[in-house]
Amino acid sequence: MAAHNNYGAFHGDAEDEVDSHSPRGQQSDPELPQAQELQKPRLLLMGLRRSGKSSIERVVFHKMSPNETLFVESTSKLRKESIVLSMDLEIWDFPGHLDVDDPSFDGEEVFGGSTALVFVIDAQDDYLEALQRLYTTVTRAHKVNPEISFEVLIHKVDGLSDDHKIETQRDIHQRISDELADAQLDNIHLSFYLTSIYDHSIYEAISKVIQKLIKQLATFENLMNILCSNSGVEKAFLFDIMSKVYIATDSSPVDMQSYELCSDMIDVIFDVSSIYGPDTQDATLSPSSNPNPGNGQGHAVIKLNNGMVLYLREVNRFLSLVCLLREDNFEKQGLIDYNFRCFQEAILDVFRLRKHGPGALKDKYSHSYG
Ligand SMILES: Nc1nc2c(ncn2[C@@H]2O[C@H](COP(=O)(O)OP(=O)(O)OP(=O)(O)O)[C@@H](O)[C@H]2O)c(=O)[nH]1
Q1: Which of 109, 197, 231, 338 is the one with CA 20 to 30 A from 40?
Q2: 243 and 348 co-located in one domain
């Protein structure tokens, strides 16, 4: 153990060794791209002390309730975690006192193998020190790994008025852009999100961060566009059901209200199904607390009192599609179901192709292989 190592990570004293965690007892799905054939994307969570990093990770990936995070202890050493969602992911949660200029910090190792750096700024606090840390972290990381993406969460905005939120984002953006420009580093791109664990904003932001890690995102989006335009669907989200992160949506703009409705549907359906649903192998929808996988056949409908319908269809045991459409269009449910089956098959083909290469679909599309 390195005596003066203030992040305790790479010399064997990390708080948790890379610990394979799958929420609610899941195992990796052989149908999905797995770590051995993909390099597992690694997300770094950084920020000052008590900015809310660990809370974000616990709320989104461990289903901790926001109020419980009040009792989360300050992180003293790096926590590494391996998360199995619809994709494998590694998350490294750094303690707030981490100094990337400290000689014991191995920037090559940390930034070299990482895909995204999520920097959390506490918007309820004076953020000048955080901006200074953001600048040093970003410049160091970019030097080591120009491919790494920078995601800045302006966090705890639940305490701010709408005007104040916008002003804070503008100010933070301006200050960091000026500093980077002064150092002639304006080629570094940072994305900003206003977040809070007390509403859906944190899920939306993490969804966007995760989507950047998905190489097949454009294919998923295309498939969703085709499904929506041929089925009269206004908006559709492909959700990772355990985290409620959406890994893809169609290309129409995301409005927060539709996202909240679709995301809440997952909670409602899985809560109801965990109480009233069958708890055996034939469970069609796998309830949140039920380790039995769904079989990709589950579906649920909620008719809203404003003439809209929410329609959920399970794609496989990790993913569900949630659509928002007009009740009139839902009259052609047979057509929607047929289109959904084509969509489901195409999504699963993408995963097979990714895992096994073009040969995986040889029998199915023999004409295209000569
Ligand atoms: N109001 C509000 N409080 C939050 C939010 N997110 C986290 N917190 C609170 O912020 C405090 C610190 O959260 P942590 O997750 O421990 O922060 P951290 O960045 O991991 O802190 P260190 O472990 O010291 O690096 C906790 O009391 C959380 O309840 C948020 O969105 N809004």
Answers
A1: 197
A2: yes
Going by alpha carbons, the residue nearest to atom 13 of ligand 1 is 52
Residue 315, domain member (yes or no): yes
Edge-to-edge order in the sheet of strand 245-249: 245-249, 233-240, 319-326, 308-314, 299-303
Residue 31 lies in domain = 16-211
Could you tell me the distance, in angstroms and rounded to a whole number, from the CA of residue 60 to the centre of ligand 1? 13
Q: Which DSSP category does 24 fall into? A: G
| Cα four-point dihedral sign 179, 182, 185, 187 | positive
Ligand 1 first shell, C-beta below 6 A: 47, 49-55, 69-70, 72, 74-75, 95-96, 155-156, 158-159, 196-198
Nearest residue (by CA) to ligand 1, atom 3, is 156
**Coil, helix or strand at residue 79:** strand
Is 321 among the domain residues? yes
**Alpha-carbon separation of residue 267 from 125, 138, 274, 369 (angstroms):** 32, 36, 10, 43
Which atom of ligand 1 lies nearest, measured to the CA of 120? Answer: 19
Greater model confidence, 312 or 271: 312
Q: Are residues 84 and 69 in the same domain?
A: yes
- Among the listed residues 316, 300, 364, the one whose alpha carbon sits nearest the alpha carbon of residue 86: 316
H helices within 197-332, ranges in order? 201-211, 217-231, 256-276, 327-330
Q: Is 130 within a domain?
A: yes
Per-residue pLDDT reduced to its tens digit, 320-363: 999 999 999 999 899 999 999 999 999 988 888 776 666 656 66
Residue with tokens 């294919």, as numbered in its chain? 219
Among 211, 245, 279, residue at a domain's last position = 211
Residue range 112-157, pLDDT digits in tens: 989 999 999 999 999 999 999 999 999 999 999 999 999 999 999 9
What pLDDT shows up at residue 99? Answer: 85
Q: In this structure, what DSSP letter does residue 37 have?
A: T
Q: Say if residue 248 is in the same domain as residue 178.
A: no
